[in-house]
């Protein structure tokens, strides 16, 4: 029970980071995944001790544990969604899968390995998101936006970019064949904002028809 409780606590720590950023799975989900994985590992190791004295009985203590690795993938798949042409939830799904691995390690009695995994997962979801994640991106991002032909549509768009602290490098506008306004932007994202947040915020504007990240 100590191992299961410890795994649940470590899972809650990982879930707190996800919850603080308003992601799909939070404290309760990671808490239960960590405890469940530890429970399965404890069961796999000690649940059949009374069967070992039987003749002609072959037991493999890794079978239940192996099913956790593949089975938790279905839970992660349910967190990955396609919203407005943008895939969301991949990092959270990977975090849940890693949380299950952490729970299995603690369930097996590998407390240092499990605790170290918690530290690495949380660091990977925070520090890398803020700094190293920007190294692989281009200096300027190109976004195509289709607006309704309204007088305040462009003002709302520019105000939202300013609110997000997005730097506007270049802008081109022209009328499209559907009576709307086509806006081509070259922007630079601040370290505190990522692509998904910008797309979600732009889609939330009342006069925006479509956002295409090029």
Write a structural description.
The protein is an alpha+beta fold and 214 residues long. It folds into 2 domains: 2-133, no CATH class; 141-213, ACT domain (Alpha-Beta Plaits). 52% of the residues lie in helices and 17% in strands. The chain has 7 helices and 6 strands; from the N terminus they run αααββααβαββαβ. The protein has helices at residues 2-20, 27-46, 63-77, 90-107, 111-130, 153-163, 195-203; strands spanning 81-83, 86-88, 141-147, 167-175, 181-188, 208-213. The strands form 2 sheets. It has a 4-stranded antiparallel sheet, covered by helices on one side. Strands 1-2 form a two-stranded antiparallel sheet. A hairpin with a 5-residue loop joins strand 4 and strand 5. Helix 1 (2-20) runs antiparallel to helix 4 (90-107) and helix 1 (2-20) runs parallel beside helix 5. The termini are far apart.
Helices and strands in order, then pairings?
Elements: H1 2-20, H2 27-46, H3 63-77, E1 81-83, E2 86-88, H4 90-107, H5 111-130, E3 141-147, H6 153-163, E4 167-175, E5 181-188, H7 195-203, E6 208-213
Antiparallel strand pairs: 1-2, 3-5, 3-6, 4-5
Helix pairs in contact: 1-2, 1-4, 1-5, 2-3, 2-4, 3-4, 4-5
- How many discrete structural domains? 2
| Structural class by helix and strand composition | alpha+beta
Secondary-structure element sequence? Answer: HHHEEHHEHEEHE
Radius of gyration equals 24 Å
Spatial separation of the terminal alpha carbons: 51 Å
Q: Indicate the low-confidence ranges by residue numbers.
A: none
Strand order of the largest sheet: 4-5-3-6
Mean pLDDT: 78
Please work out how many helical segments DSSP would assign. Answer: 7
Q: Please tell me what the overall shape is.
A: elongated
InterPro entries: MgtC/SapB/SrpB/YhiD_fam, MgtC_SapB_SrpB_YhiD_N
Transmembrane segments: 25-43, 64-82, 102-124
Organism: Cohnella rhizosphaerae
Family: Belongs to the MgtC/SapB family.
